[in-house]
């Protein structure tokens, strides 16, 4: 079956057609500087072929999500883990649904990893699912760079491998690659070389014009003609387009992108003083920066001892012992209050356990705590939980009892960290950052926090994963609870 789709018109006034069945076997490369009309061309091609073939668009800027409203494409935002994205890609091939992979908001490194994961999922589908599919990759030089850049070597290697598979081996799996790039010089040659159809738009650099002329079989002196192309005008060549280079003007489209060229408009008229007020006066809904205030001076241990001596000379009574369960409950409340007072002081959370316990004993004697101060082991456990900021009253008692039971299998100084993660997982809140975990452990080192999570993961208490936006997700294996994604670098 031969399907000709209309992409525009030739200089003679005739319609410019593209053989869709031939395109599936020979692939397409589009080049043009920013503003030359590449995205417009891709949108025209996608709209005209939407009813004939399944489509997948790798969209780094979120420009093609508008296809969903008119043509029923499903927008896949790059969230969750790489495993989730790979499973989505497998379902896309299974159910033959056209999709737009929206990578907007991700940095270059994560965009490359997400695109590689999705393309690998399409490529690795079972043989029974090798239905024809057009795979459009906008800004292909980001995913198949000709040289190493600022991204990590792992991300570059994975993305380049996935793009190479798409263009070199995708045909047998029904995948027809359509790649668009601003500069041919930035695109890996082994990826560009596999395309047999070309649409070359406006470009200015000599190296790009020469390479475009070579691909189209034009003489070098004709290369400068690419500088004179208007926006939306391309030179077409290939078995799916034309047997010789012909100029094509791309036709109109039905949908619009969220980007586009900015339009000039006059500046608002306002007196100079009003403009100064707008700049230098904060608005009512503007978030004001919070200035860090110095904490109140911390009372030294010597001053506390002086208070203790004065109280003893005044003839304080002997420390009463707990005689009933009511007294015991009040005692636990006082212990919790004393520990909270200690941790409220500046840098107290990072003091050695021996120093904190000495301070705790003194405060217990001043408070006339019934039964005396708890021993060091009990204090260490209570301090660990208090550092984590866990309030039992906020939790379901039965569920929280399970968390405490499992935390008891860890060393005492790690129990608070586990309960901190359990609190976040039970409340479906974001995973705590490294600094928060480190503080719960009694250190300022984010590296120590990462070691703690690795240690607990090795012992089978939890599993750490990273979603495609780089946020951490922690699953507590024994409880089956999972935190929401959280930035590990969050303060």
Question: Can you put this structure into words, describing what you see?
Answer:
The protein is an alpha/beta fold and 491 residues long. It folds into three domains: 4-250, P-loop containing nucleotide triphosphate hydrolases (Rossmann fold, 3-Layer(aba) Sandwich); 323-387; 403-491, Winged helix-like DNA-binding domain superfamily/Winged helix DNA-binding domain (Arc Repressor Mutant, subunit A, Orthogonal Bundle). It contains 17 helices and 14 strands. The protein has helices at 20-26, 38-49, 67-71, 82-95, 108-123, 153-169, 189-192, 206-216, 272-280, 301-313, 325-344, 353-366, 376-387, 397-407, 412-426, 434-441, 446-458; strands spanning 4-10, 15-19, 28-31, 54-59, 74-77, 99-102, 133-137, 175-181, 197-200, 233-238, 242-250, 462-466, 472-476, 481-482. The strands form two sheets. Strands 2-1-11-10-9-3-8-7-4-6-5 form an eleven-stranded mixed beta sheet. Strands 12-13-14 form a three-stranded antiparallel beta sheet. β1 and β2 (15-19) form a beta hairpin. It is elongated and about 105 Å long. The two termini are 60 Å apart. Residues 291-296 and 318-326 have low confidence and may be disordered.
């Amino acid at each position: 079956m031969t399907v000709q789709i209309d992409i525009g018109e030739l200089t003679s006034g005739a319609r410019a057609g593209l053989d869709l069945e031939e395109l599936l076997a020979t692939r397409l490369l589009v080049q043009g500087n920013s503003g030359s009309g590449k995205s417009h061309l891709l949108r025209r091609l996608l709209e005209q072929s939407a009813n004939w073939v399944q489509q997948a668009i790798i969209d780094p800027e979120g420009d093609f999500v508008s296809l969903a409203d008119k043509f029923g494409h499903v927008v896949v935002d790059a969230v969750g883990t790489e495993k989730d994205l790979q499973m989505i890609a497998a379902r896309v091939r299974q159910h033959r649904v056209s999709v737009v992979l929206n990578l907007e908001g991700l940095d270059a490194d994560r965009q490359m990893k997400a695109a590689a994961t999705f393309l690998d999922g399409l490529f690795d589908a079972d043989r029974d699912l090798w239905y024809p599919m057009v795979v459009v990759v906008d800004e292909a030089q980001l995913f198949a760079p000709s040289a190493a850049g600022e991204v990590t070597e792992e991300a570059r290697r994975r993305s380049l491998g996935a793009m190479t598979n798409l263009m070199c081996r995708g045909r047998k799996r029904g995948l027809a690659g359509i790649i668009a790039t601003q500069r041919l010089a930035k695109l890996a040659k082994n990826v560009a070389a596999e395309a047999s159809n070309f649409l070359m738009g406006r470009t200015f650099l000599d190296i790009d014009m020469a390479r475009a002329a070579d691909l189209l079989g034009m003489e070098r002196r004709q290369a400068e003609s690419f500088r004179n192309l208007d926006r939306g005008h391309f030179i077409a060549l290939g078995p799916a387009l034309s047997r010789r280079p012909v100029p094509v003007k791309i036709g109109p489209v039905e949908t619009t992108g969220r980007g586009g060229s900015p339009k000039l408009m006059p500046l608002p008229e306002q007196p100079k003083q009003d403009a100064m007020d707008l700049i230098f006066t904060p608005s009512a809904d503007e978030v004001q920066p919070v200035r860090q205030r110095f904490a109140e001076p911390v009372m030294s241990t010597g001053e506390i001892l002086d208070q203790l001596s004065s109280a003893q000379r005044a003839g304080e009574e002997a420390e009463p012992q707990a005689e009933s369960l009511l007294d015991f409950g009040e005692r636990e409340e006082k212990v919790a209050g004393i520990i909270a007072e200690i941790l409220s002081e500046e840098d107290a959370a990072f003091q050695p356990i021996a120093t904190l316990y000495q301070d705790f004993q003194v405060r217990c004697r001043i408070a006339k705590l019934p039964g005396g101060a708890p021993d060091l082991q009990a204090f260490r456990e209570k301090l660990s939980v208090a550092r984590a900021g866990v309030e039992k009253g906020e939790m379901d008692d039965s569920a929280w009892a399970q968390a405490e039971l499992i935390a008891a299998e860890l060393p005492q100084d790690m129990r608070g960290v586990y309960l901190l993660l359990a609190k976040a997982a039970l409340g479906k809140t974001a995973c705590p950052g490294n600094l928060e975990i480190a503080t719960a452990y009694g250190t300022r080192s984010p590296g120590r926090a990462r070691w703690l999570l690795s240690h607990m993961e090795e012992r089978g208490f939890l599993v750490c994963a990273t979603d495609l936006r780089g946020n951490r997700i922690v699953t507590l294996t024994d409880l089956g609870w999972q935190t929401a994604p959280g930035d590990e670098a969050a303060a």
